[in-house]
Design brief:
cystathionine gamma-synthase activity, 14 helices, lyase, 2 domains, 384 residues, Cys/Met-Metab_PyrdxlP-dep_enz, Aspartate Aminotransferase, domain 1, cystathionine gamma-lyase activity, five-stranded mixed β-sheet, PyrdxlP-dep_Trfase_major, binds pyridoxal-5'-phosphate, alpha/beta, single chain, Aspartate Aminotransferase, domain 2
Length: 384
């Protein structure tokens, strides 16, 4: 059976993978080497130096391409290193349109690293495609989408944005970290580049920092590979192995993340002390129809606001949680809670963050795969 015909849940295990050529090892060995013996100058077995390529990284890159329905995968030292490579496709004077509810680190690399090289960034509410269209001009070279957004769980219609991008011959990149290919496959919806912080759900065990890009087009892959090798922000063999191992259980983990996410969202929405719950699975979520259309399920990320919008109360809740760990990051097997106003969004002025909904009492949960009843009783005791 051709590997391309495998269904997603089989691709996570077999996609792009073959037993190792040397001894038939079922898992690719961790080729912890920088260089490779040559028989004559240039006489090697496909690998000459590990910045350019390493067999363990190749195994991960092939797996990434397979699960995202792409043709080429590239693994980087972090999600932001992967983004860095995408922006390096651009030249001074080029313009980028992105969402105003963007991962903080993405906003920082755009504004504080690349703006000074003459690249211009616009941040708009991307739930309305017309708002994106208004910002397009002849210099627009890239649209950068993140959906669901963080921490407000807005959903952007990838297919609609892709139509617009194609009409104007603009590259479309989608940060698929929150959804993972289990829930949505942006390349199938018309995106040119999929980006991941594999640190999150793909790795899935909070033990590694890795980034990834996947594309279909050979020429685009060549340009990105050139940057990966020339700038050098690659992913090492040990980290490649860990993410590869994580990917093999992505579908089972995601299924449970979604089930637990749903249970937690429903519990919170019925709680008398909770003002608002942000989860795209609710029928009254403003982008629910788009979420239903482009996602298989609604994921394990849930944000909520307590009544009275008290900063102190929110802090007290996250400190009282026992099964949920108070920590940055997301997407691991363990449940995490975060307080954006004092953690991820602390550097944004209060008035500014509140415009996008990041109020003092907002709490963000990355719902893990523990027993659902334990998660709910933990929230129950912490909210009081
Ligand atoms: C974490 C994250 C990133 C950055 O990835 P790193 O691996 O931390 O560099 C980018 N986008 C989203 C949505 C993230 O959650």
């Amino acid at each position: 059976m051709s590997e391309k015909k495998l269904r997603f849940n089989s691709k996570t295990i077999h996609g792009g993978q073959q037993p190792d050529k040397a001894y038939g090892a079922v898992m690719p060995p961790i080729y912890q080497t920088s260089t490779y013996a040559q028989t004559t100058p240039g006489g090697h077995k496909g690998y000459e130096y590990s910045r350019s390529a390493n067999p363990t990284r190749t195994a991960l890159e092939n797996a990434l391409a397979s699960i995202e329905n792409g043709s080429y995968g590239l693994a980087f030292g972090s999600g932001l290193a992967a983004m860095d490579a995408v922006i390096k496709l651009l030249s001074p004077g080029d313009e980028v349109i992105s969402t105003n509810d963007l991962y903080g680190g993405s906003y920082r690399i755009f504004r504080q690293i690349f703006e000074k090289y003459g690249i211009v960034f616009h941040f708009v509410g991307m739930q309305d495609v017309d708002v994106i269209a208004e910002k397009i001009n002849k210099n627009t070279k890239l649209i950068w989408v993140e959906t669901p957004t963080n921490p407000m769980m807005n959903i952007i219609d990838i297919k609609a944005v892709s139509k617009l991008a194609k009409k104007h011959e603009i590259l479309l990149a989608v940060d698929n970290t929150f959804a993972t290919p289990y829930l949505q496959q942006p390349l199938d919806l018309g995106a040119d580049i999929v980006m991941h912080s594999a640190t999150k759900y793909l790795g899935g065990h909070s033990d590694v920092v890795v980034g990834a890009l996947v594309v279909k087009d050979k020429e685009l892959a060549d340009r990105l590979y050139f940057i990966q090798n020339a700038s050098g922000a690659i992913c090492g063999p040990m980290d490649s192995f860990l993410v590869l191992r994580g990917i093999k259980t992505l579908h089972v983990r995601m299924q449970r993340h979604c089930e637990n996410g749903r249970a937690v969202a429903q519990f919170l929405s019925q709680h008398p002390k909770i003002e608002k719950v942000y989860w795209p699975g609710f029928e009254n979520h403003p982008n629910h129809e788009v979420a239903k259309k482009q996602m298989k399920d609604f994921g394990g990320m849930v944000s909520f606001v307590t009544k009275g919008n008290s900063y102190e109360n929110a802090i007290a809740i996250v400190e009282k949680l026992v099964v949920f760990t108070l920590a940055e990051s997301l997407g691991g097997v363990e449940s995490l809670a975060g307080h954006p106003a004092s953690m991820t969004h602390a550097s944004i002025p209060k008035a500014e963050r509140e415009k996008s909904g990041v109020v003092d009492a907002l709490i963000r949960l990355s719902v893990g795969i523990e027993d659902e009843a334990d998660l709910i009783s933990d929230l129950e005791q912490a909210i009081g």
